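Operator note (shift B, R.M.): manual run for DUF7426 domain-containing protein requested after the automated queue skipped it. Running by hand, logging everything below so the morning shift can see what happened. Input copied straight from the record, untouched. If output looks odd, do not overwrite the archive copy; leave it for review.
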Amino acid sequence: MSAVDFAAWARPNLELLLGGRTFVVRPPSVAQARLVLALAVRFEVGEERTPPEVMEILDGLPDDGHPALGETYTEIVEAGIDPVTLSRVGVYATLVWARGREYADAAAEIIWGPERDAAAADAPGKASSRSRSGRRRTSPTSGSATPTTTTSTASRSTASTGRSRAKPKGKPSR
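Run finished. Output pasted below as returned.
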């Protein structure tokens, strides 16, 4: 029997552009994946509602590093990325490995999108070039303070997959 080239089905690395640099995060090992899944549970349900058996797993978290970032954690720290952004990168990577990129993107938009939008609105004379979804605007922004009645509220399909964008249920804990 010939060998099967499984590379086409292997989980790809996560590439993160941050501070003008691309950080490559490898998928977690089996041991790290256990911690990543426990972190995802705690993130989604909140610490107070996390089952005791999951909290026991989280007791094994390393004092330095992050299981979802692996070796890349040290590279990010050495690059001088601020602690808040580092924490967000850890949450994002956790959600990518636990639930998939579409879910992680949707959660990031729910959690950090309003902060980004507020910062863009506060910038003097500078309108954001991104919509609330994080996509670049294709037309100038309207002067209207209210949404139009023609705006669709249905999920949009992604161009690459033709499937609806996955969305997290409710607003996750920060």
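Quick read of the result: The chain has five helices and two strands. The radius of gyration is 19 Å.
Leaving this for review. - R.M.
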